[in-house]
Amino acid sequence: MLAWVTIDRQHKSYLSPIFAGAIHKGNWDEYEQAYHTFCVVLNESKDRLINVDFYQNMIRNK
Question: b or e along 36-57 (b: 16 or more beta carbons within 10 Å of the residue's beta carbon)?
């Protein structure tokens, strides 16, 4: 499967294969239990694998 990856809004998007995806249930403090969804993709120069937050750059309408 391929995905368009944007590390932050300042960089141009690039196409990368998805090597893995996971959902991690975190317990970061005693009041917050949340799910963290991420995937493993190539970096922009395509020479190593990186973890990318699945929802980090989604545009939300207000």
Answer: eebbebbeeeeeeeeebeeeee
Taking the whole predicted model, whether its pTM rises above 0.70 is answered as no
CA–CA dist 38, 21 (Å, integer):
6
Q: Which residues contact 47 (CB under 8 A, 6 or more apart)?
A: none
Question: Which residue is it, tokens 């196409």?
Answer: 15
3-state secondary structure of 24: strand
pLDDT digits (tens, 9 = 90+) for 18-56: 999 888 776 666 656 677 788 899 998 999 999 888 776
